[in-house]
Automatic annotation (TrEMBL):
Pfam families with a match to the protein in the record: Methyltransf_23
Top-level taxonomic group: Bacteria
Bilayer-crossing regions: none
Protein name: Class I SAM-dependent methyltransferase
Keywords: Methyltransferase, Transferase
SUPFAM superfamilies, alphabetized: S-adenosyl-L-methionine-dependent methyltransferases
Source organism: Hyphobacterium marinum
Amino acid sequence: MTEKTPATRPLETADWTPAPCDLCGGQVTIRLGERAYTVRGRTRDFEMNFEDAACAACGFVFAARRPDSGFLMAYYRDAHIGHRGGELHFDGEKRLAAVAERTPKGGRVIEIGANDGAFCAKLTEMGFDAFGLDPVEADEAESVGKGFIGEGRSGIAEPRSADTVVAYYVLEHVIDANAWLAELIDLLKDGGTLILEVPNYETHPGDSLNPEHLLHFTPRSLRELLVRHGLEPEDGLEATVRYGQAIAAKLVDRAKAARPAEPSDVYFDDAAAALERAQAAYKVAKAERTRRTLVAHAAAELAAEADPSGKASVFAWGANEYAERVAPLLTERFETVRVIDRSASKIGTPFPGLDTSIAGTDVIAEADRRIFLLCSPNWNRQIADEIAASGWEALAVIDAVTGEILSAQ
Ligand SMILES: [Zn+2]
């Protein structure tokens, strides 16, 4: 099925208003750079206008201008292809274990940013009383069936009812970190556990500076934010994705959750060095994003060499930003380009720059000449093994993250 793009598309714009530092309230920022671009959504285009800045007082990196929430909701509903929960089939076990270890048997777990509810469904199978909240997906009947309760909480998500609240890769997207965290804490019982994962700006600044992200946490700033809100972080919870950081923390002081404390002296003591690290990391991120664009061009070139006729069906596997870079380059050279993904919440949704929707692996068998471009930094090896084991013959299997040929005929 082909969905043709209309000749003219509406353009959504936002009021981008200045925001203070989420960590210390500082108003003075040091400009790191700007990212202005237009995102192609399903029915409309969205004008993005980021100014990346570091707080002069504490070194936290954030979007110095924030869009209004109406614009963001419209954007996520129309343009977001989702990376939250999208790789549950690979990394879900580690997340489930982390929740199970910290939650009483049969306890209530609430997931914020629950996408299509796959993670909650697993927790329910394990005997937990699990529910998901997702403002973006709340109106989808299928999601509701898996335990969604929508933006306005129903009785299920009553205050102080959850043993554990989890949010994977949500906090970096929110307009107001303090207000968001206060709402999550409100759901927790005293002594309940909050588990968060966000990108790690210190180790993977290029991933943290993904389009869409407004907040860029280091382990230092993430910990400080939680402590200010009356949470006591544990040490050593491992992230489940390559570029991320995870933290689990117990609610020990509800009064602080209502009135967050000032950042600690220890936090400010390290501010000058943190600011220097933030600026250095921003340069690394810019170089990394340039490198990724060059790799996408190299990968598209390898595909063209594998079939100069342009007749092969090309499958970009992994509906993410790597596929977004390489897919438009492939459509210039090949008649049939499909973006493949395993996530039920992505399949069937349009993909930026393509006139076909994201497909599941079932379409692969229909092709007779195939080229694969693997777009998942975490799982390309596993996907390559799966292709080798499947019996799908391929002219070439190309790693679109590294720009290398993995196998060729
Ligand atoms: Zn600050």
